[in-house]
Amino acid sequence: MSGVVEISWDGVCRRRLVRHGLVGVGKAGVGEVASAVAGVHGQVMSAAEVGIAMRTPGGTRGDVREGLWGERSLVKTYGVRGTVHVVAAEELGLWVGALSALPFTGLGGLPPEVLMSEGQIGDVLGAVGEALSEAELTVDELTEEVVRRTGAWAGDPVMEAFQGKWPRWRQVMHLAGMRGALCFAPNKGRKVAFTHPERWVEGFVPVAADEALPWLVRSYLHAYGPSTPQRFAHWTGVGVTWAKELFASLGDGLEKVLVEGEAAWVVAGDVDVPEAEPTGVRLLPYFDGYAYRVGNQPLSLLYPGVAGRAARGNFQVLLVDGVAAGLWHQRRSGRRIAVTVEPFTPLTPARHDELVAQTERLGEILEGVPTLTLGPVTVGSHA
Questions:
Q1: Tens of pLDDT along 204-254?
Q2: Which of these, 108, 229, 243, 360, has the minimum number of CB atoms within 10 Å of its CB?
Q3: C-beta of residue 91 within 8 angstroms of C-beta of residue 207
Q4: Is 281-374 a CATH 3.40.630 domain?
Q5: How far apart are alpha carbons 257 and 234 in whole angstroms?
Q6: CA 169-170-172 angle, 5° bins
Q7: In 3D, which of 250, 242, 263, 262 has the Cα closest to residue 218?
Q8: What residue spans define the domains of the chain?
Q9: Which helix (H) or strand (E) holds 84?
Q10: Number of Cβ within a 10 Å radius of residue 165
Q11: Number of other residues whose CB lies within 10 A of the CB of residue 26
Q12: Is the pTM of this model over 0.85?
């Protein structure tokens, strides 16, 4: 195809390693890191702390906590796919504007007798926003306020939970975050707490969809491009047809390229490829490797051969030269951190030295003393 830039798979790996801060760690702060990777999965905060800190020079989990609860350069909220994410505070208005504009595909997976009507959903989201505009509340305190403002039906214990049942309204807790009525606040003792973004982020205002959606595509393509509407749909959890229409609406703002002969897209003009070959060893924590997989495709290249095992669950991934090359796990006892790494193929002496350095860096991040063992990782995914 005349005039279309061609990028090799190695070139794609080079771009993504640099964009994700996995080689040549620069001087970025924690907010800049979250922005560069289009949000960090925050369901397991200890993993998010590692994922962010490893991308900052000399960063530790304490720096991430300060960014969240002290200087507030980070915000913990609900992001793409309705999952917990840590995002840059200065971009929260853009995130909310974009996520609010994504097509609502319903609350699938719940029995009809549990589901709320469209009107009830609106009532609950309004009640959540009103309650949190006045205070920082635990989920139990928020439940009391939602029930007081909407009715006893919202508190019916009908949702299956880990131990017991959750109240009906909680099926839309993620929507409250995505639409800007809720974000996380510092824990109250051992209990998770929430507040309204307007109380937490100075100057928070949701950005209009016509500005926020193009920004979301550009942010995704910066971190994960070259990519396609199909992969963007996977990342956001929307339908492929809608994603294709969104890409098409951006017109000259996007540029088609060829990756190993397959069409993909980047932000217009963003076709540069770092000269250095993809290289380096990294220990990606839970959800970091998962996000790298969800955003980066195709799996056959990112998780070659036996590494496909790591693609079937949310494992902690050993990344070598931009592709999955093993699993790892850590177990903490006081300040001691026992790190077990299972490479899928033997490591060269140079790669082993890099792994040792990564293990030492992990100890710095977690503020502990690590030991490294090469051997099988026997825990399941997300353990």
A1: 999 999 999 999 999 999 999 999 999 999 899 999 999 999 999 999 999
A2: 108
A3: no
A4: yes
A5: 20
A6: 85
A7: 250
A8: 5-200, 281-374
A9: strand 84-88
A10: 13
A11: 12
A12: yes
Q: How confident is the model at residue 266 (pLDDT cuts 50, 70, 90)?
A: very high
In whole angstroms, give the CA distance from residue 347 to residue 277. Answer: 18
Q: Find the DSSP H helices in the chain.
A: 9-19, 30-36, 45-53, 61-69, 92-101, 118-132, 139-150, 173-178, 197-200, 209-224, 229-236, 240-249, 288-295, 299-302, 349-366
DSSP letters spanning 274-286: -SSPP--EEEE-T
Classify burial at 186, counting beta carbons within 10 Å of its beta carbon; exposed 0-12, middle 13-18, buried 19 or more: middle
Per-residue pLDDT tens over the stretch 73-83:
999 999 999 99
Amino acid (1-letter code) at residue 372: L
DSSP letters spanning 18-83:
HHTT-SS--S--HHHHHHHTT-EE-SSHHHHHHHHHTTSTT--HHHHHHHHHTS--EEEEE-GGG-
CB 63 within 8 Å of CB 56: yes
DSSP state of 237: T
Calculate the CA 382 to chain-centre distance: 15
Closest CA to 264 of 234, 287, 298: 298
Max Cα-Cα span within the chain:
65
Output the average pLDDT for the chain. 90
Smallest Cα–Cα separation from 318: which of 346, 349, 296?
Answer: 346
Tokens standing for residue 37: 């990777």
Say which residues have a Cβ less than 8 Å from residue 39's Cβ, sequence separation at least 6: 79, 80, 85, 86, 87, 95
Residue keyed to tokens 């139990």: 140
Q: Which conformational region is residue 3 in: left (phi greater than 0), alpha (psi within -120 to 50 degrees), or beta?
A: left
